[in-house]
Amino acid sequence: MVPVVAAAVLVGLLVAPPLRGLIAYFAVPEGEPWCGACPLCGRAVRLLAPTGRCPGCRGRLGAGAGTVEAVAAAVALAVAYAADGPQVMALAWAGLLGVVLGFVDGRVRRLPHLLNLALLAGVAVLLGVAALADGRPGVLLRCLLVALAVGALLELAVWARALGPGDSPLGFALGGLLGWYGWSVALGGLFAAVVLAGLWAVLRAAAALVRRRPVRGLDVPVGPFLLLGALTAVLAR
Asked: Coil, helix or strand for 65?
């Protein structure tokens, strides 16, 4: 068990620098160009150290120091714990891009369609390979049906302006992944996401009241909670 934990944490730490670079690249407000270089010195940014600072001018870029490393290591450990079949590669892919999507949504309240498309394409291909390797091609139909159901449900919320436009594509991709495990796991993932997002909103409101500050609009980023809910459902199945 200890070697597995150590290996998972090591993998998380090794993938953190490119994940940091992607977070810095995509974490820009809607309508602005992607951040391919440091806005202070113009140096191209692809890999970032745990400090989250530009290697050229030492200016702050992307996520806070150590945060991506901690989350990436935790996700890698969760994926290793949940590994029980060929679908683990799809779960790992969702975990990698999920770290980026979660941080980007948390910082600028958007889920870039390019990242959602990469997540969806990777999950679809890897689940297809897993189904063939496991001799269960029929499971792909359930994955598709769950993806359509989750995506449609979240799209209704988007039409009602309760969610952002990137949440339904993310739900479609996560629904396909959870469909491998069954309808109950997918429902559990949605339930966990709603509960976690609600708890976060309540905690934010309570913190504002304690500090005697006005409780402004609870602009909760839904993407991180969809991702966390999906992972929770897989671990708890």
From this structure: coil
